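Design a sequence for this backbone.
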């Protein structure tokens, strides 16, 4: 075996966290965890500084596009990451991904207008999708199998780390009137992790698994659906908005039809039917993701309606992600009946949170704690609801999927999650613009947009409750049959 590849030897000893930071594993952990942290921190930095960016360069009507295009590009990058790894090897793949991410970040830092910023965000997302997905692919090459669960835990922890660091970086630069500097600060960090990965990771490995056919037509239709809905958000004519929604629904319908007939699949068998257990699980994931997308407007609404500085607005928006992390940790120990209750209670908590925000966010409070505290509670409720449900949705998918399709079922979790987030963000842009966030704009437009955003998106957890009940009933039936 070459010096570039780590020998993998089975061990009966239970691995500890210290094993991830012993010898060369320490460099691997830092490279993989750091690249995911970079991608995650960037998400919270961008959300926090966007109000300052639109105030400087304009483009409020395109506010949601910053998230939509980033997430869409992340999906495409993640889908192509296995091919990049196979053809370029771990070392070069990470270097290429870091270079793409840094290029997009540079474009964002130099953007003189919103269209240029959106191009930068798309390129950033493409590189970030590579970085995120490569972490899982490279993990299988450089770590012993007994350490994989620990590495996955480390990668997951990076998202919690990002909720602490991202709003701080974005908020501080925004309050200093230097939102561009937040992007400039990410460029040397991207270079550092790219260089570290290039120096530490193997060039190539014969252990890279065979690639499944790329579902290119489905990815193109998904891109078309997201872009059609996004285009609808920039018009103020109701017919224009309706036409974009109809086009989006048509593209999704064609995607599902293509998925059912194509040998190259995005989803495992049965996932495209709501009557099947897998379909109900994936539908619940999609609805949860859609329901949380008004959160992209929270920093703007808190600054405009509640006189919050960028730093505090960023941290209040991050309460949703913090709640998701806490909820996942708490519910991870629930089994059987507790897991089924978690799948039911989660959407109910999301609904409570969205209803709270629909009533309280539109109010002008000038920073009054009597309004801000329940707003924070509403955001936390949404996150806790997703966290209570998430571990059991993932477990349910793995149990319901045929053993031969476990790999595609696992990959589809991220695909459905990101796709729903992109569609939800585009939909949030449509609702916010129709409600007047850009025209007439100002306080009145922001207040109207807040009421419509959180009110309309409360429909998602309502539908999610129906899907969750169906899922729970099937689980109970299966349990009775086994007993």
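Sequence:
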């Amino acid at each position: 075996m070459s010096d570039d590849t780590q020998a993998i030897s089975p061990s009966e000893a239970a691995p500890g966290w210290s094993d991830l930071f012993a010898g060369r594993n320490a460099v691997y952990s830092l490279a993989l965890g750091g690249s995911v942290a970079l991608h995650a921190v960037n998400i919270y930095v961008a959300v926090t500084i966007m109000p300052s960016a639109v105030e400087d360069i304009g483009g409020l009507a395109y506010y949601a596009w910053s998230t939509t295009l980033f997430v869409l590009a992340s999906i495409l990058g993640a889908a192509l990451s296995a091919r990049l790894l196979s053809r370029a090897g771990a070392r070069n793949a990470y270097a290429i991904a870091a270079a793409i991410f840094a290029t997009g970040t540079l474009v964002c830092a130099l953007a003189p207008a919103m269209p240029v910023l959106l191009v930068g965000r798309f390129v950033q997302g493409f590189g970030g999708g590579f970085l995120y997905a490569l972490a899982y692919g490279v993990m299988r090459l450089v770590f012993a199998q007994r350490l994989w669960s620990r590495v996955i835990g480390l990668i997951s922890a990076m998202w919690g780390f990002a909720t602490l660091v991202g709003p701080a970086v974005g908020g501080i630069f925004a309050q200093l009137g230097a939102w561009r500097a937040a992007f400039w600060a990410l460029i040397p960090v991207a270079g550092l992790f790219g260089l570290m990965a290039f120096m530490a990771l193997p060039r190539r490995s014969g252990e890279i698994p065979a690639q499944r056919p790329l579902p290119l037509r489905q990815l193109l239709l998904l891109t078309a659906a997201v872009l059609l809905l996004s285009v609808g958000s920039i018009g103020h004519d109701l017919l224009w908005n309706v036409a974009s929604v109809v086009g989006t629904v048509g593209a999704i319908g064609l995607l599902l039809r293509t998925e059912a007939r194509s040998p190259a699949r995005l989803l495992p068998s049965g996932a495209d039917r709501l009557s099947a257990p897998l379909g109900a699980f994936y539908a619940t994931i999609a609805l949860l993701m859609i329901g949380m997308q008004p959160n992209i407007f929270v920093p703007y609404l808190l600054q405009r309606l509640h006189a919050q500085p960028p730093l505090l607005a960023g941290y209040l928006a991050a309460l949703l992600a913090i709640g998701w992390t806490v909820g996942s940790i708490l519910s991870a120990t629930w089994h059987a009946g507790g897991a089924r209750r978690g799948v039911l209670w989660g959407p109910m908590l999301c609904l409570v949170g969205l209803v709270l925000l629909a009533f309280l966010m539109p109010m002008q409070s000038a920073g009054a704690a009597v309004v801000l505290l329940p707003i924070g509670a509403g955001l936390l409720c949404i996150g806790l609801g997703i966290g209570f449900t998430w571990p059991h949705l993932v477990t349910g998918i793995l149990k319901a999927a045929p053993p031969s399709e476990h790999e595609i079922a696992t990959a589809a979790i991220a695909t459905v999650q990101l796709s729903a987030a992109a569609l939800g963000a585009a939909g949030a842009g449509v609702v916010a613009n129709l409600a007047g966030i850009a025209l007439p704009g100002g306080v009145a437009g922001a207040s109207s947009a807040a009421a419509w955003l959180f009110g309309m998106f409360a429909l998602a957890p309502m539908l999610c409750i129906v899907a969750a009940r169906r899922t729970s009933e099937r689980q109970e039936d299966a349990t009775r049959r086994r007993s």
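The chain has three domains: 18-205, 216-264, 270-483.
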